[in-house]
Design goal:
The protein has 2 domains: 120 residues, ornithine cyclodeaminase, domain 1, CATH 3.30.1780; 177 residues, Rossmann fold (3-Layer(aba) Sandwich), CATH 3.40.50.720. Helix 2 crosses helix 3, helix 2 packs across helix 11 and helix 3 runs parallel beside helix 4. It has 321 residues and is α/β, with parallel strands linked by helices. An 8-stranded parallel β-sheet has the order 9-8-7-10-11-14-12-13. The protein has a 7-stranded mixed β-sheet with strand order 2-3-4-5-6-1-15. The longest helix is centred in the middle third of the chain and has 19 residues. The protein is globular. The termini are close together. Helices cover 37% and strands 26% of the residues.
Length: 321
């Protein structure tokens, strides 16, 4: 019998993959990249018509023995995500994985890994701007790596932030409070997270305090920025997941770089921090910044976990040979 080739649905992914699994997947894929055992290609985009887009991301992990790509389409505001996972030894298709939930978990996991490496060890208060789908895994992942006791959330719609606060308080067992402004969310926080669809800054650098760790996990567009120039300028360390991708997608960094306010040469990639090549924090008062865009390496590493568990448990629908 050959290697099973499976179609795995969103509902099955939810049963097979947790945030803890995703953190392990992201962590290991970054270590593989640090040892030249993995490679990631920046996202490519194509316009298919008015409000229709096709996006593709490629990656290979030699240590896991897999390669693959994520593709997602946008049409009339509706997103559909899929990861195609291949066995590198045979080039056989292992799985097509519906990847909306997978993407949410791996994006949150990347924030978890970056926070573990970059935030102060005693960081216990989180301010989060944004209350949508991605905001849930952001906060959950941070609670896995730091002793978080309290969080404050702001989003422009009162019902959304109140619903988020109620849901996450119950799910995580911590105090999550809705607040009436972005400033109120991040003031006094040890960790500040932006995860919004805003095209203009929602985080003001004047609000930052010594020792704060900032995560910008929203926009991936050269004309979009969630954080202002001062936030970037005040950071003692700026880390991106992939510099080549950041140079074409991270508006928060591209805009100030174009004005000479920050240099690409001073930025580091997350694998350098995880591997210990670069020290994330030289003093407790340092302000650190992680700009997250997402890497296919994380998608295929998470998809490999999902696939292996699907095979073990008999989950998934067999694809025709």
């Amino acid at each position: 019998m050959g290697i099973p080739s499976l179609y795995i649905t969103e509902r099955e992914v939810e049963r097979l993959l947790s945030i803890d699994d995703a953190i392990v997947a992201v962590d290991e894929s970054l270590m593989h990249r640090a040892h030249a055992l993995a490679a990631n290609n920046p996202r490519e985009r194509a316009v298919g018509g008015p409000d229709v887009y096709v996006n593709t991301m490629l990656g290979i992990d030699h240590a896991l023995g897999v390669h693959g790509f994520k593709t997602y389409t946008v049409a009339s505001g509706v997103f559909r995500f899929f990861v195609y996972l291949y066995d590198s030894a045979t080039s056989g298709l292992l799985a097509i994985v519906e990847a909306n939930k997978l993407g949410q978990l791996r994006t949150g996991a990347a924030t978890g890994v970056a926070t573990r490496e970059m935030a102060n060890a005693d960081a216990s208060e989180v301010g989060i701007i944004g209350s949508g789908f991605q905001a849930r895994s952001q906060l959950e992942a941070v609670t896995k790596v730091r002793p978080v006791r309290r969080a404050r959330v702001y989003s422009p719609t009162r019902e959304h932030r109140e619903s988020y606060a109620h849901e996450m308080s119950h799910e995580l067992g911590i105090d999550v409070a809705p607040v009436d402004s972005a400033k109120a969310a991040v003031e006094g926080a040890d960790i500040a997270i932006t995860v919004t669809s805003s095209r203009e800054p929602v985080l003001n650098g004047e609000w930052l305090e010594p020792g704060m760790h900032v995560v910008a996990a929203g926009g991936a567009d050269p004309y979009v920025r969630e954080i202002d120039d001062l936030t970037v300028q005040r950071a003692d360390l700026i880390v991106v997941d992939d510099k080549a991708q950041a140079q074409i997608e991270a508006g928060e960094l591209m805009m100030p770089s174009g004005r000479g306010l920050v240099l690409w040469e001073q930025m580091r990639e997350l694998w350098q921090i995880v591997s210990g090549e670069v020290t994330a924090r030289t003093a407790p008062g340092d302000i650190t910044l992680f700009k997250s865009l997402g890497m296919t390496l994380w998608d295929i590493a998470a998809a490999k976990i999902v696939y292996d568990r699907a095979v073990e448990t008999g989950v998934g629908r067999s694809l025709p040979e």
